[in-house]
Structure formats: structure tokens, C-alpha cells
Design a protein that fits this description.
eight-stranded mixed β-sheet, four-stranded mixed β-sheet, single chain, Rossmann fold, alpha/beta, 14 helices, 386 residues, binds histidyl-adenosine monophosphate, BirA Bifunctional Protein, domain 2
């Protein structure tokens, strides 16, 4: 028997679509537009954006040479492709902001476990050309609205990584601290000292965590502008009644972030607890060849929140069934009329009234319309509310 690949799953749960519909509705209510970018992109797009020091690029890419000799890979995340498209369509030359939402599969060759797949789906948001911290608040509020609408409880963690002005001097301070403690750090962190020292801060290794709790903190080293923006961010979230915790070690696993970073965490889904993550990436458009453009966004991991969404228990739609074969064309015709404004299921196998009612009940329909010999003669239905 041929099975789906390890870490890849068939989606049969209707909650998947419910999440999609809810997220789309919320994004549209904020005035965002839809974007869909290709699943396959040039590998160098992700090397330059997500970063060569990240685990995603280093260890987890589905990378191959295509028949034309191009080095390509299945996208491990959505931001890089949206930025590529933004530049390719010359939106970076316009003054007006652009705000997008997207939904689709991402691929990371990770070790599969609960909540960690090799093919998973993200709902993402990317907002370009708005440097104001109020846009960060807008974006976080959008994510919070999606979770609220879906009835999902979360903890929001926020941090600031600083900008080009304060980040370099902080990196120097941190590197000094890391070099002093180098012998006590794991191999990955030793490598990160030269590649990207701030990535040591979210190392999961307990012995590293013990050392790193005394490391200098970026939020204590922010420049005046970043500091006041971070204060404004907190005030803005308070203003909207969105609760948060400051996590000074929240640096995220992708290299493109500047200033605000955030993550939504659930304590109901086990070790892979991040249900969404995002932040500002003010340098990325420029790094990929576009005009300097501030940007901020996030992505929600759909599979991670599937178990947190309640099943729809309310009955809905109409079940139509025939007791005799000759009544089937009649119900098919009537169903087309009724479908204009509701869900109508047609059972094409003739069955007894009792069997039909049982099936309608099991299918969680609201109403059953059944046609037997007598009903067919009169052009009517036997009707039952369920
Ligand atoms: P990320 O934190 O790598 O960020 O992924 C976002 C979310 O995708 C995670 O919080 C998690 O819920 C889900 N996720 C990640 N990896 C897996 C996996 N292997 N299996 C299942 N779910 C997973 C990004 O991808 C950024 N592009 C987000 C962003 C958009 N930042 C700015 N704009």
C-alpha cells in the first residue's frame, strides 16, 4: 500500500475550512487583499531572507535541481515569496502601503512529532510601507481577533530586537558574553556566536538556558526610538485589551526580524506550543533588491490550532431522499432550487423513510425532505425537522 509521506497528512477535518473562512473574514474586515505566490521558488530567495544561519535553511529545506538546472525548493514559509512578489511587481516604488493575506502549504524537513509536520499550512499576513508602531498593534490585533473568533485561548509574548542603530552594539555585547562562556554552551550555540549570536537566546538546551539567563538583554539596550516604540506597543495593546507578556529571549527562528517580534502560545497542545509568530522586518525588502520598505507580518500554523477549534454542533442544511427510484429526478430538480440559499444534500439511493431519517439525523442536518410514491404524485415532500 502506498502511504502519504512521513510528516505529511491528508486533511479531512472540516475545521480546516472553518479556520480558513474565519481568518479570511477577519483579514478582509481589516481591508487586506489576497495574494497567492508559487510554492516552488529559487532556493537563494530563502537563503538570503530566512538566513543561512537558521535551522530552516540549514537543515530543513526541500531543495533540488529541476530539469532546467535551477536550484529550487518548496517554500518553508510565506514571507520571502510575498516580498519577492512585492518587489517584482514594483510595489516598493509606490508611496501607498500594501497589505496582504495568504493561505497555503509550507514544507520543512523537520523530525515529525505532535504539532510538527513536514507539510503544514499557514495563514499569513504581510503589511508593507507602514513604519508606524501602530501598524504592529494593528497586525497583532488582527491575529488576536482570529483566535478570539475561533474561541482559542492564547498567551501573547512580545519583544523588541532593536534596529540598525541599537542591534549592532547589542550584538557586540552579547558576543562578548557568549565568548566568555563559550565552553559551557552547546555546539549549535558555539556556531551561532559567529553566525548570528542572538539566536543563542532561544536555544532549547537547558544548560545553555542557565548560562543565557544572565546574558545582556536587548530590551535593556534599545536606542531611544526603539525604546519609545516598544513602550507605545505595550500601551497600544493595553488600549485594545490584548494581554501580553514581555519575553526578553523571544528572537524567533528566522533571521529577517528587526524591532517587534511576537508569538502566540497555547498551553493546550503540548511541546510545539507556538500557534502563530511574526514581527517587523524593515530591512528585508531592501536585502532582496527592493527599495527600503518597512514591513510587518505574522503567520498562524493551521494544524496546530485544529484541535483547539470546537466542532460545529449546530444542525444545518436539508437532507433529501427518495423511497422509490422514480422520485430521484424530482428531488434532484427541487434540490437545485433550494440550494440557492442553503446546503442541500441529496441521497441518490432509494431507502425506507426510517433509514432516511436515521441518515439525516446522523449527518447533523436540520431538516429532512423525503419523497415516496404518494408524495411524487402530488409533487410534495414528507417533511421532518430534526
Ligand atoms: P514561523 O514562526 O516559522 O514564522 O511559523 C509560523 C507558525 O507556523 C508557527 O508559529 C507554527 O504555528 C507553524 N509552524 C511552523 N513550523 C511548523 C511545522 N513544522 N509543523 C506545523 N506547524 C508549523 C514564519 O513562518 C514567518 N514567515 C511568519 C511571519 C510572517 N513573519 C512575518 N511575516
Amino acid at each position: 500500500m502506498i502511504k502519504a509521506l512521513r510528516g505529511m497528512k491528508d486533511i479531512l477535518d472540516p475545521k480546516f475550512l472553518k479556520i480558513f473562512d474565519t481568518a479570511r473574514e477577519v483579514a478582509q474586515s481589516y481591508g487586506f487583499s489576497y495574494i497567492e505566490t508559487p510554492i516552488l521558488e529559487e532556493t537563494k530567495l530563502f537563503k538570503r531572507s530566512v538566513g543561512e544561519s537558521s535551522d530552516i535553511v540549514n537543515k530543513e529545506m526541500y531543495e533540488f535541481i529541476d530539469k532546467g538546472g535551477n536550484d529550487v525548493c518548496l517554500r518553508p514559509e510565506g514571507t520571502a515569496g510575498v516580498v519577492r512578489s512585492y518587489i517584482e511587481h514594483k510595489f516598493d516604488r509606490l508611496e501607498t502601503p500594501k497589505r496582504f493575506w495568504y493561505f497555503g502549504p509550507m514544507f520543512r524537513y523537520e523530525r515529525p512529532q505532535k504539532g510538527r509536520l513536514r507539510e503544514f499550512h499557514q495563514f499569513g499576513i504581510e503589511s508593507f510601507k507602514e513604519a508606524s508602531i501602530y501598524e504592529d498593534i494593528n497586525i497583532i490585533s488582527l491575529a488576536a481577533d482570529i483566535f478570539d473568533k475561533l474561541g482559542i485561548k492564547y498567551t501573547l509574548k512580545i519583544n523588541s530586537l532593536g534596529c540598525n542603530e541599537c542591534m549592532p552594539s547589542y550584538k557586540e555585547k552579547l558576543t562578548e558574553f557568549l565568548n566568555e562562556n563559550k565552553d559551557k554552551l552547546c555546539e549549535d550555540c558555539q556556531r551561532r556566536i559567529t553566525q548570528n549570536p542572538i539566536r543563542t537566546l532561544d536555544c532549547k538546551n537547558e544548560s545553555c538556558q542557565k548560562i543565557l539567563k544572565d546574558a545582556p538583554k536587548i530590551t535593556d539596550n534599545l536606542c531611544e526610538n526603539c525604546k519609545s516604540d516598544f513602550e507605545e506597543l505595550k500601551k497600544g495593546l493595553d488600549n485594545l485589551g490584548i494581554k501580553y507578556e514581555v519575553d526578553k529571549h523571544l528572537v524567533r527562528g528566522l533571521d529577517y526580524y528587526t524591532k517587534t517580534t511576537f508569538e502566540f502560545i497555547s498551553d493546550e497542545i503540548g511541546a510545539q506550543s507556538a500557534i502563530a509568530g511574526g514581527g517587523r522586518y524593515d530591512k528585508l525588502v531592501e536585502m532582496l533588491g527592493g527599495k527600503p520598505t518597512p514591513a510587518v507580518g505574522f503567520a498562524i500554523g493551521i494544524e496546530r490550532i485544529m484541535d483547539l477549534v470546537k466542532e460545529d454542533e449546530e444542525r444545518s442544511g436539508i437532507y433529501m431522499g427518495a423511497m422509490i427510484k422514480e422520485a430521484i429526478p424530482f428531488i434532484q430538480k427541487e434540490a437545485r432550487k433550494l440550494r440557492k440559499n442553503q446546503k442541500v444534500y441529496v441521497e441518490v439511493k432509494p431507502k425506507s423513510l426510517k433509514a432516511h431519517l436515521k441518515a439525516a439525523d446522523k449527518g447533523n442536518f436540520k431538516k429532512a425532505l423525503i419523497v415516496g410514491e404518494d408524495e411524487l404524485k402530488e409533487g410534495k415532500f414528507f417533511e421532518k425537522e430534526l
